[in-house]
Amino acid sequence: MDVLRYAAFTDDPSGGNPAGVVLDAAGAGDEEMLAVAAAVGYSETAFVTRSNGDRDYDLRYFSPTAEVAFCGHATIATAVALPQTGTLAFHTRSGLVTVEANEGSATLTSVEPRVLEIDWENLDRLLSVLGWSTEDLDPSLPPRVAYAGVSHPVIAALTRDRLGRLDYDFDTLADLMRARDWTTIQLVWRENDTSFHARDPAAGIGVVEDPATGAAAAALGGYLRELGLVTPPASVTVIQGEDMGRPGRLEVDIPASGGIAVSGQAVQL
Fold first, then answer.
1. At how many degrees (to 10) do helices 170-180 and 120-130 cross?
2. Strand, coil or helix: what is 226?
3. For the CA atoms of the chain, what is the radius of gyration?
4. What does the alpha-carbon distance between residue 238 and residue 187 come to, in Å, rounded to a whole number?
5. Which of 109, 137, 157 lies at the terminal end of a domain, its last residue?
6. Helices within 26-169 (DSSP H only)
7. What is the 8-class DSSP label of residue 206?
8. Do 127 and 88 touch, CB atoms closer than 8 A?
């Protein structure tokens, strides 16, 4: 398979989140796609497994260790890599994701988000693995598990310094995330009403930290709407990857109902 490489949510090849993109994976088996993703080594590689005509595609995503039902940054990368612009339809394991593709940028609209409580036992275990305490949390942004294609606990730090100090036991967090089907942990710090900084450990899919996570940004948008923390229609910006030396920018548009829109640029590596 011919693997293209893009950095998503940036216009700088040294920033954002690298993704592999295979535009023709028709007939490829699961093991073959997993092996390609492992060889590429990025957090996810997207595979166009079928073209249905009229800008309609089947899309699957693999990390180096497992299939992932939905991946935002690889969706943006795929939309930019495809020759068409305009409205694209991607059929994913999580459902239909529509994308508006432009020259060098794209906007995805997630599946319908949902937000669930996180019980004290799971929160206590998660904070313990991260080395955080309840005093590290922003009380105005209560912990929840948010979904917009895949699930992410949303954990808000009280200070930027707390967000910047990420150190955890990889295997312990990986076991916890796999048991609960959490794709990343969406750690955020709110700079102001419309600006967030994020870090996303993703040990459950074999990734220490994801540099720019479109699926988690969509989940955050659903979380903010569900908890009444924004008044739709609203827009917020998520800055991610700064602490990794790969800064990226995700623009999140939150309508009154329906899927969350996440926009960003992508550049070929």
1. 160
2. helix
3. 17
4. 11
5. 109
6. 30-40, 72-81, 120-130, 160-164
7. T
8. no
Q: How many Cα atoms occupy the beta-carbon half-sphere of 74 within 13 Å?
A: 28
> What is the pLDDT, as a whole number, of residue 1?
87
Q: Within this chain, do residues 137 and 264 fall inside the same structural domain, yes or no?
A: yes
Asked if the model's pLDDT at residue 231 lies above 90, the reply is yes
Exposed/middle/buried for residue 186 (C-beta within 10 Å: 0-12, 13-18, 19+): buried
pLDDT tens for residues 54-81?
Answer: 999 999 999 999 999 999 999 999 999 9
Residues 119 and 100 in one domain: no
**Calpha distance 261→253 (Å, rounded):** 5
| Domain end (from 91, 109, 127) | 109
d(CA 155, CA 151): 13
Q: Residues 142, 242: one domain? A: yes
| 13 and 91 both lie in a single domain | yes
Q: Which amino acid is at 129?
A: V
| Contacts of residue 260, Cβ cutoff 8 Å, sequence gap at least 6 | 109, 110, 113, 148, 217, 218, 219, 221, 222, 225, 252, 253, 254
